[in-house]
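Researcher: Please translate sequence to structure tokens.
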Amino acid sequence: MVVPFVVVEVNTYVYGTVMKTRLKKTDWVIYALKELAKYGHSNLTAQNLAQKLGVSRGSFYWHFKDVRDFEECVLQEWKNISTEQIISDLRADTNPETRLTALLSKAMSAETSLERAVRSWAATDKHIAVVVADVDLRRISYVEELLEALRVPLPERRVRALALYWASLGRIMIANPKFTDLTTKEVEQLASLFVLTRHMG
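Model: Translation complete:
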């Protein structure tokens, strides 16, 4: 499952120039997501993050074996907040139609900077690209799962799931803010387009 297409805003602490308490691993990861969303992957260096957090680079290597280990932790957290948490929250609703509408509402109103940054990063690093491809699969599979619960015929499920996911990803590329959000009514209309079963005469 997956809540595709969404980018969740990252909340983090405000750090001063000098940290008075030892940073935890999660502090590094959450702050890195904020930096990634705002400045891109080129800012995710141990030196840059340590300087901004007001600590030595030794703190970085205390928590992470190496840069690749750090990147994997950052991507895992991105996957959790942009996909797994959303799917988990949606599953609390037993009605698949309202789940689909809620998913689309989140996807079509979410802040997009983090999703853009991760995908830009993936375009430059094959290891990152593998993780992003896995997230794509997870999200599309979840949409297919929702459509199956809505009794959409198997031959139509995949193409509808892909169309929805492509729409959500396309949204993050649109520069004109007039075309980046949908009203509640429009989200419901969009959901209905993918739920209706085509009757063959």
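Researcher: Any highlights?
Model: Confidence is low (pLDDT under 50) at residues 1-20.
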